Amino acid sequence: MRSTTPHLLKYNVTPAHPGVLLKIWEPAPMNNQRLKPFLFMINQRLETEDEAQQVLGEYLAAYGQDYAIDRG
After folding, report:
1. For the residues of 2-46, what is the DSSP string, one character each?
2. Could you give the strand order of the β-sheet that contains 38-46, starting from the edge strand earlier in sequence?
3. Nearest Cα to 8, choosing from 29, 36, 35, 28?
4. What's the gap between Cα 62 and its chain centre?
5. Beta strands 20-27 and 7-15: pairing type?
6. DSSP state of 64
7. Which end of the chain is more exposed for a tag (fewer CB within 10 A), N or C?
8. How far are the Cα atoms of 4, 8, 55 from residue 20, in angstroms, in the given order?
9. Cα 50 from Cα 22, distance rounded (Å)
10. CA-CA-CA-CA dihedral for 41, 62, 13, 70, to nearest 10
11. pLDDT digits (tens, 9 = 90+) for 8-45
């Protein structure tokens, strides 16, 4: 049975000279087995913020159908 509540993906784009750094992650509470506050995190260095937005859009088109998105 599928949940009607979407999972949450967060992302941010920060300057990383040269270029920018795109991070996409799924937050999750820390516990004894999880030492970081996320299930996964993707870090990708890109040349421009426009390129980062394009990569984010492609990622969401491929994997984000069941996710809500939030700029973190």
Report:
1. --SSPEEEEEEEEE-SSSEEEEEEEE----SS--SSEEEEEEEEE
2. 38-46, 20-27, 7-15, 67-71
3. 28
4. 13
5. antiparallel
6. -
7. N
8. 34, 23, 12
9. 11
10. -80
11. 999 999 999 899 999 999 999 999 998 899 999 999 99
